[in-house]
Structure to design on (965 residues):
């Protein structure tokens, strides 16, 4: 039913602003878009005030591309740079209080499940390292312990970018940032390890260097959350401002960091693995049947 | 809190000032079914519709602001309102249709000919010199904040045709506005014209607003026009010492 | 709970079982067989018109605790999700609500991590379009208040039961309603019940008031802990096979976050901040709208709570203005004053937000003295009264007790008489 919300009432199409006409005529809703098509169709995300060259922005654009069902997704965020872009997305976006994403998402997902028994509704938390590992830590952990069925995506720029460059729990040890005048005193928090320990069904660590991989990982995480349990993606999305990365070098930095300490990592729980292998096999079978 | 004023508060076209009070707080009640609200006073539905019709026919640059709940055909109720909505438009000579398709803060700025936005609805009113407008299909929360901001800074006569309980902050409002009542509004427009109200823009049809709408209604492909470059002379008109630098030799 | 340990509370003249200050006693959990049996009851419930359930339906009288009264309200309120976290003296109610979930009266229920988690999840569930409930007390309320203060701006109807106790420090679990003062400026509706009957009635009405499209606000129903929650009183209730209609979420003042209603670009909680693409005036107007919505709730409070205030002896020269358990004490003081031949009246304030300003101005206009007894140190109700009415030198801001003390009627009588009563 929800594709109805992007169909104009009779007679209204021509009165809409251009961005909505484009979204209807050439957007991501009525046909599935691929990474290779980026730049040639109207994306879900509208003009936004993110900094030029921001890796996080690229990653967020890819998230919209990877969501298996844009018309049945709801995104939850909190304070941080990312929400400046997510606010402009053609997917309902909840901006709650500080660090409350995973409590809000728990209530939201359960509420949607009560109302929509036959239509899976995907809830996706997308917030920064400060929002998820520091202020929202307890809520993240408890949503995992409770096995809440939604995806948590950390936009890890290893700093509080939005408030002007303070140290976060995900900052690397030794980094000199605001509020860490003598360098950070402790290690980057092992959120991936914590995810595994607390029973997250699917965990991935990723850098935005390979867009297709990002899109596939997002899709996998959302589908597993729908069927099995909580999923977690930790993405390196550098802050070129606070880490003084020259704009043209943002992707070079991402490749270097990926090689050095942020390489692609995946972890499936047994149940998630079983589900994913089976659903992949089913999809292959269906494709083959289609070809025949 | 509460109506503590001796004289009843009137909800009339502004500009009322920086921050007008919410009409509710000033003691203005909501109309019941069958009633309407005109300038803060309960009337019959018919009187409210006629007041609204008169304003739309006689004030400058009348504009319809359809909101998400009528623009998007997401259920039977919205789809069945579409046709009478355009019938209303056809009864108001020289009317513009400027949508409020969503409520997000539009970045970097709105095109005031193409949209109205609850983050700063006054910009659309000012730019188009709108002196009478209708909000329809806008969620009540956003309608109320929009109505207050319009009353604060503009001289626009606001009309809220609300599917729920109605709006105290509008100059004219009718509650429970379903498709049938949209038809009644069309009839009110016809009636007041018959009774001698001469439309300000008699003989004019719907005036397209905004480049995309203009092109679409002509059947052309909309192409965004370039931002008009500011020539030297015009730039000078807006400049001051902080732009050109202080003249250090000046005494 | 110890059998037969019935004690009459001298302060409230209510009969308590056991001494609730030592431990929070609760009835045993139902057995699986009993749950199966009760499920039939849940399935057999029928939806009735809210006016019927709240006003017209025949009622029967039961002698129950406030917590049980709340449970009975929730049973009839067609709640979709309840989210719990224990804190004395609230736990009793939310575990009873848990049994309602087990019996099929509620569709989802869980014990969350703590109050920020609870109140955040309520915000999420309310945005999903379901009817959501939680309850808290004292320190739990203060812990959750960042969330609670954001519900009204989010236009999130939900119901929060508040079983008042003190706010630490020092730690105490005693009744003292200072926490209501923290709720006053949040923007939501705040009802304050006097007794078990009010707790039942206000809790049912709360859902319907908050979900009215022109209101669309959360409603807190506060009662004084222990005096109401753990003491028994007579409660008149309609049959338990009746329930309210479900939440009608597409007829509220904001879109639902379900991706089923327009607009598709909903940023319902638009981050309004210093920037060049949004107006400060929007935030100002937004705040005004929240408090305007409170005011619109008056119509429904009047309808379903039988008036926003109750006036006893309206012509008396000395008027007591009270809310919550202080009303019970004041009723007794009015009775005793009458025996002494003194002319004393009482105004019961049922709703603190919206505050019945005009009603209070009219009801106190003739009064020479206005006495405001309260169960807290700060005197929040006296401040409200003083800032509302004219000639406020008439207001006597007290007597007040706090820290869990009960309020002997003599205290009020002494204020009335103006000297010690021996």
């Amino acid at each position: 039913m929800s594709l109805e919300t992007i169909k104009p009432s009779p007679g209204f199409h021509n009165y809409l602003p251009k961005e909505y006409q484009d979204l209807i005529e050439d957007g991501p809703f009525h046909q599935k878009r691929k990474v290779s098509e980026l730049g040639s169709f109207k994306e879900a995300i509208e003009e936004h005030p993110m900094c030029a060259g921001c890796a996080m922005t690229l990653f967020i654009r890819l998230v919209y591309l990877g969501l298996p069902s844009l018309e049945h997704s709801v995104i939850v965020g909190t304070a941080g740079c990312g929400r400046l872009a997510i606010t402009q997305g053609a997917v309902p976006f909840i901006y709650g209080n500080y660090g409350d994403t995973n409590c809000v998402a728990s209530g939201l997902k359960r509420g949607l499940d009560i109302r929509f028994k036959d239509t899976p509704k995907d809830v996706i938390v997308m917030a920064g390292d400060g929002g998820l590992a520091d202020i929202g830590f307890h809520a993240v952990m408890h949503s995992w312990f409770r096995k809440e069925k939604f995806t948590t995506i950390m936009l890890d720029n290893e700093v509080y970018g939005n408030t002007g460059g303070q140290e976060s729990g995900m900052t690397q040890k030794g980094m000199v940032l605001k509020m860490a005048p003598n360098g950070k005193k402790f290690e980057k928090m092992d959120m991936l390890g914590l995810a595994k320990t607390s029973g997250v069904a699917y965990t991935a660590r990723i850098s935005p260097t390979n867009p297709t991989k990002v899109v596939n990982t997002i899709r996998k995480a959302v589908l597993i959350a729908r069927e099995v349990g909580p999923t977690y993606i930790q993405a390196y999305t550098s802050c070129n401002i606070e880490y003084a990365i020259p704009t043209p070098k943002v992707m070079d930095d991402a490749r270097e960091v990926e090689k050095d300490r942020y390489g692609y990592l995946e972890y499936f729980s047994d149940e998630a693995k079983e589900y994913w292998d089976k659903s992949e096999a089913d999809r292959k079978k269906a494709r083959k049947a289609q070809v025949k | 809190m509460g109506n503590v004023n001796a004289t009843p508060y009137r909800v009339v076209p502004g500009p009322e000032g920086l921050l007008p009070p919410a009409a509710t707080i000033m003691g203005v009640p909501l109309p019941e079914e069958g009633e309407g609200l005109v300038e803060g006073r309960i009337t019959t539905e018919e009187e409210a519709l006629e007041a609204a019709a008169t304003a739309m026919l006689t004030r400058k640059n009348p504009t319809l602001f359809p909101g998400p709940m009528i623009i998007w055909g997401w259920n039977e109720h919205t789809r069945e309102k579409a046709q009478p909505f355009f019938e209303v438009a056809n009864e108001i000579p020289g009317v513009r249709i400027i949508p409020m398709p969503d409520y997000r803060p539009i970045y970097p700025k709105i095109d005031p000919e193409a949209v109205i936005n609850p983050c700063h609805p006054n910009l659309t009113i000012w730019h188009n010199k709108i002196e009478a407008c209708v909000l329809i299909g806008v969620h009540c929360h956003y309608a109320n904040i929009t109505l207050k901001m319009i009353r604060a800074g503009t001289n626009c006569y606001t009309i809220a045709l609300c599917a729920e309980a109605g709006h105290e902050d509008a100059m004219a409002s009718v509650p429970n506005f379903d498709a049938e009542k949209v038809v009644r509004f069309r009839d009110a427009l016809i009636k007041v014209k018959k009774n001698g109200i001469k439309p300000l823009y008699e003989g004019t049809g719907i005036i397209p607003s905004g480049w995309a709408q203009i092109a679409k209604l002509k059947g052309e492909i909309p192409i965004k026009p370039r931002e008009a470059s500011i020539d030297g002379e015009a730039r000078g008109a807006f400049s001051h010492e902080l732009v050109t630098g202080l003249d250090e030799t000046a005494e | 709970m110890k059998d037969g340990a019935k004690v009459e509370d001298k302060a409230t003249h209510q009969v308590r079982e056991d001494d609730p200050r030592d431990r929070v006693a609760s009835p045993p959990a139902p057995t699986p067989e009993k749950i199966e049996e009760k499920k039939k009851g849940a399935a057999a419930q029928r939806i009735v018109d809210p006016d019927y359930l709240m006003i017209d339906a025949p009622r029967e009288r039961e002698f129950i605790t406030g917590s049980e009264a709340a449970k009975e309200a929730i049973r009839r309120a067609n709640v979709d999700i309840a989210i719990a976290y224990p804190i004395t003296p609230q736990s009793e109610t939310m575990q009873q609500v848990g049994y309602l979930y087990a019996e099929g009266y509620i569709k989802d229920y869980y014990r969350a991590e703590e109050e920020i988690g609870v109140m955040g999840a309520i915000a999420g569930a309310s945005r999903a379009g379901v009817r959501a409930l939680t309850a808290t007390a004292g320190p739990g309320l203060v812990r959750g208040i960042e969330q609670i203060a954001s519900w009204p701006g989010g236009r999130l109807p939900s119901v929060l039961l508040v079983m008042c106790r003190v706010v630490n420090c020092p730690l105490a679990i005693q009744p003292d309603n200072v926490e209501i003062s923290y709720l006053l400026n949040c923007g939501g509706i705040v009802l304050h019940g006097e007794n078990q009957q009010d707790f039942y009635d206000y809790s049912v009405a709360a859902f319907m008031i908050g979900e009215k499209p022109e209101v669309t606000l959360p409603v807190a129903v506060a009662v004084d802990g222990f005096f109401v929650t753990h003491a028994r009183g007579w409660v008149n209730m309609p049959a338990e096979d009746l329930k309210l209609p479900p939440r009608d979420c597409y007829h509220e003042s904001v879109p639902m976050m379900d991706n089923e209603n327009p607009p598709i670009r909903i940023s319902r909680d638009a981050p309004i901040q210093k920037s060049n693409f949004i107006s400060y005036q929007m935030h100002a107007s937004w705040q005004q709208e929240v408090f305007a919505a409170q005011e619109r709730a008056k119509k429904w409070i009047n309808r379903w709570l039988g008036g926003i205030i109750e006036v006893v002896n309206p012509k008396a020269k000395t008027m007591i203005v009270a809310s919550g358990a202080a009303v019970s004490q004041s009723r007794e003081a009015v009775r005793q004053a009458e025996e002494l031949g003194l002319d004393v009246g009482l105004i019961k304030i049922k709703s603190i937000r919206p505050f019945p300003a005009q009603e209070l101005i009219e009801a106190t206009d003739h009064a020479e003295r206005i006495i405001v007894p309260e169960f807290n140190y700060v005197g929040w109700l006296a401040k409200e009264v003083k800032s509302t009415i004219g000639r406020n030198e008439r207001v006597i801001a007290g007597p007040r007790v706090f820290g869990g003390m009960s309020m002997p009627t003599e205290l009020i009588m002494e204020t009335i008489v103006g000297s010690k009563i021996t």
User: Anything to note?
Assistant: Chain A touches chain C through 45 residues (CB under 8 Å). Chain A has a mean pLDDT of 95. The domain at 52-291 of chain A is CATH 3.40.50.970 (Rossmann fold).
